[in-house]
Amino acid sequence: MSSQAARAVVLDTEQSLRTYSRKTRKSAAAHVRADNLLPGGTSRQAGYWAPYPLTFKRAEGPFLWDIDGNRYFDLINNYTAMVHGHSYPPIVEAARRHAGRGTGWVGGNFEQLELAEEIVGRVAAVEQVRFTNSGTEAGALAFNIARKLTGREKLLMARYGYHGSLLEFETGSFGREGSVTLLADYNDLAAFERVIEEHGNEIAAVFLEPVLGSGGVVSGDALFLHGVQAAARQVGALLVLGMFMDQLSMMLLTVPIFFPLAIQFGFDPVWFAVIVLLGLEISLTTPPFGLLLFVMKGVAPPGTGMRTIYLAAIPFMACGFGLVLLLVAFPDIALVLVR
User: Fold this and answer.
1) Which of 241, 256, 287 is the last residue of a domain?
2) Do residue 52 and residue 37 come from a single domain?
3) Distance CA 99, CA 82 (A)
């Protein structure tokens, strides 16, 4: 970057900070109060940014309102957990209805059983479900179970992976090894195999994300995931897959980046959205690591191999590529309905 461009970035940043400070004075005052009462002025570190975070008053659909009255279009969606939007009426009504019956007791509830039955019935690989309050709690519980079952103390995870805010996981999230945290690069099967071979008798569990999220949104290669599973099984370590990201989550992360660029370069946003969706569908069925291929394997007749699944996906991929080429050559096809 040239010195002139660097100065322009600095000036633009300073202007943005001045605008932010001018329009969010009440949030600034709220943070001063919070800083005296809460460590760091927040109860959730992911919600902090300099010079101070916004303090929100309400949210509805895709919008947020802060205490200064500013309205924001929410592109974070609580890090994809709020895919249904804020204050979604059916959820609000269900919460209101159940709050009247009581909200906490030491015992089970029928709704939990129904939800567990729904998940187990829909996903062939899921035999039992344990509900937790957060991903951190789920990761900590899985690690404790692995320690108890194996009698070992260490874990292996991908460098910059994310499995919650437990110290053992956060160490790896920042790319550092710890006293019980071992690291290897994501999608590098040889690196994982070396660590497992060297420390196999110490590793209780290998933690992996099928899609590396905070480390850069990288899809896991199927050969890599299966290879790590085999290596872990060979030394008696558990494999824990966590922080799943489906296509909707991927869209929520990538659309805010690419759509402004598409508009800036003069592409029609509807046409671009159709291309993105087609590309996503193609990627999900592309061998050897397309997510939908494993969904197909889960519902295929017993004995169906992955090679058969791959071959079955080829015609669909060919149609998808053909349609993308057709839309690139004749973009008006994607716009005929909206016009």
Assistant:
1) 241
2) yes
3) 20
Here the CATH number for the domain that contains residue 96 is 3.90.1150.10
Per the structure, the count of domains in the chain is: 3
The residue count of the chain comes to 339
Q: Are 307 and 296 in contact (CB under 8 A)?
A: no
Q: Which of 241, 276, 291 is the last residue of a domain?
A: 241
Does 260 lie in the same domain as 233? no
Q: Which candidate, 66, 68, 59, places its Cα nearest to that of 92?
A: 59
Range of the domain at 204: 135-241
Q: Give dist(CA 271, CA 262) in Å, integer.
A: 10
Amino acid at 330: F
Q: What is the full DSSP assignment across 34-98? A: HHHHSGGG-S-GGG--SS----EEEEEBTEEEETT--EEE-SSTTTTTTTT-BT-HHHHHHHHHH
Q: What single DSSP character describes residue 103? A: S
Tens-place pLDDT, residues 204-260: 999 999 888 777 778 888 889 999 999 999 999 999 998 655 555 666 666 777 777
Q: Is the pLDDT of residue 9 over 60?
A: no
Q: How many helices (H) and strands (E) does the chain have?
A: 13, 9
Residue 13 falls within a domain, yes or no?
A: no
Cα separation, 116 vs 98, whole angstroms: 18
Lowest mean pLDDT among 19-33, 216-230, 276-290: 276-290
Distance of CA 223 to the CA centre of its chain: 21
Same domain, 326 and 252: yes
Q: Which pLDDT value is given to residue 244?
A: 59
- Shared domain for 253 and 227, answered yes or no, is no
Residue 121 lies in a domain: no
- Residue 163 DSSP SS3: coil
